[in-house]
């Protein structure tokens, strides 16, 4: 596995065809249109296709011929369909667009390459033009309405070329990812599936398991929900149809990891059943510090080393223009924001803007914002 740095934007040339215009397909279309690449969109759902066109992710595929192109002119096809139909859609794209590189972006990779390899053994399928890829960027929402052109900025994008993928096809796939601002990694399909089982699929399962505990709880208890619960359950809102396919296609690596989680849960249950037993407190401390050690290993933005940021909270009146005003003032103060979260206290006309900055800039920002009349909580 290896990682590649960024190059200047806008090197990909069209026409590009995107098959599947949901969250990911429409986000890729928006990102490419932002770089003036010619993009054509197709989706079996007329509504998803029309919405993607309306938000500016590209033109309907029917416009390809109207613009004087035949199928042979298409340079790149991005397959952004659900995982279970991806191999079939890739196969048909390789046939329909004889000169195009075809990439897919499905969340699991080994099964798709295996299905295509099997088809190629029976037919004249040209897998030198196919590269499996996976942008490690998404949202808990689906469909083109949730699409964002900047979704991929500074996020990992994995290339998983099969043995037949030509160097030119791999270069096109890499250029797509880099043009959309991603950091490119190269993994084998099997390495990829094992890695995402831990860093993507386990978090989804844990979040869903946790949130499912909330189904029966009374509203009285739920009214105490704070950020701990929100932070750990955001992705429990993800699309079940997509995740049934992802988990089903990566069952082997998941089962191995879940056995380890089960062992840890058993250990915790045993400890809590007798919290006064000798060594019990030490066990709990060890569990927490093992979590600390794992969390500290998660890389920060831009694929760099893990880094901790300092947070501050600014209270803003809940009226239009306040957040824009705050951000303008932070720009004037000259501090770079690393992250931002918004929250509202129920029943109060006040919003809370949580800002994260480099620790070395924290105190100066608190002081400057306070001087300018903002209410800052640290
Ligand atoms: N959601 C994420 O966070 C995320 C992140 C990275 C990769 N992915 C992968 O991207 C792909 C798309 O996911 P999404 O989140 O955009 O889902 P989505 O449900 O938002 O969009 C999927 C789209 O594919 C269309 N579609 C269905 N059958 C099709 C077919 N045969 N041909 C072409 N299009 C078809 C659907 O109508 C829909 O518009 C999936 O393979 C998923 O694994 C998702
Ligand atoms: O941020 C989110 O909503 C995601 O969960 C995105 C996420 C992930 O990072 O695990 C989920 C699945 C995809 O295959 C890729 C990205």
Automatic annotation (TrEMBL):
Presence of keyword Oxidoreductase: yes
InterPro entries registered for this protein in UniProt: 6-PGluconate_DH-like_C_sf, ACT-like_dom_sf, ACT_dom, NAD(P)-bd_dom_sf, PDH_C, PDH_N, Preph/Arog_dehydrog, Prephen_DH
Gene Ontology molecular function: any one: prephenate dehydrogenase (NADP+) activity
Domain of life: Bacteria
Pathway named in the protein's UniProt entry: Amino-acid biosynthesis; L-tyrosine biosynthesis; (4-hydroxyphenyl)pyruvate from prephenate (NAD(+) route): step 1/1
Keywords assigned by UniProt, alphabetized: Amino-acid biosynthesis, Aromatic amino acid biosynthesis, NAD, Oxidoreductase, Tyrosine biosynthesis
Top EC class of this enzyme: oxidoreductase
One BP annotation, GO: tyrosine biosynthetic process
Family: Belongs to the prephenate/arogenate dehydrogenase family.
Protein name, UniProt field: Prephenate dehydrogenase
The organism of origin for this protein: Arthrobacter woluwensis
């Amino acid at each position: 596995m290896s990682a590649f740095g960024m190059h200047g934007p806008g090197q990909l040339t069209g026409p590009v065809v995107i098959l599947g215009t949901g969250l990911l397909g429409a986000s890729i279309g928006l990102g490419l249109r932002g770089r003036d690449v010619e993009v054509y969109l197709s989706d079996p759902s007329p509504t998803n296709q029309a919405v993607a066109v309306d938000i500016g992710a590209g033109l309907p595929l029917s416009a390809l011929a109207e613009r004087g192109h035949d199928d042979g002119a298409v340079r790149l096809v991005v397959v952004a369909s659900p995982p279970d139909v991806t191999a079939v859609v890739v196969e048909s794209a390789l046939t329909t667009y004889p000169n195009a590189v075809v990439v897919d972006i499905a969340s699991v990779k080994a099964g798709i390459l295996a299905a295509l390899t099997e088809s190629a053994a029976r037919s004249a399928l040209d897998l030198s033009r196919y590269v499996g890829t996976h942008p490690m960027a998404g949202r808990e929402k689906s469909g083109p309405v949730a699409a964002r052109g900047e979704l991929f900025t500074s996020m990992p994008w994995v290339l998983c070329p099969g043995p037949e993928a030509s160097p030119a096809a791999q270069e096109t796939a890499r250029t797509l990812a880099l043009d959309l601002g991603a950091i490119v990694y190269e993994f084998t399909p099997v390495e990829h599936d094992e890695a995402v089982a831990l860093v993507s699929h386990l978090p989804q399962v844990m979040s869903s398991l946790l949130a499912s505990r909330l189904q029966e709880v009374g509203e009285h208890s739920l009214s105490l929900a704070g950020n701990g619960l929100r932070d750990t359950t955001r992705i429990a809102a993800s699309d079940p149809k997509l995740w049934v396919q992802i988990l089903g296609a990566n069952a082997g690596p998941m089962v191995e990891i879940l056995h380890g989680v089960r062992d840890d849960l058993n250990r915790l249950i045993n400890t809590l059943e007798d919290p006064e037993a000798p060594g019990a407190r030490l066990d709990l401390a060890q569990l927490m510090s093992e979590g600390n050690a794992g969390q500290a290993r998660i890389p920060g933005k831009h694929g760099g080393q893990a880094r901790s940021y300092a947070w501050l909270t600014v209270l803003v009146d809940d009226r239009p223009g306040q957040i824009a005003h705050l951000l303008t003032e932070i720009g004037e103060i000259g501090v770079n924001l690393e992250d931002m979260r918004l929250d509202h206290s129920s029943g109060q006309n006040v919003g809370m803007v949580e800002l994260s900055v480099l620790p070395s800039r924290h105190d100066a920002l608190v002081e400057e914002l306070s001087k300018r009349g903002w209410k800052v909580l640290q």
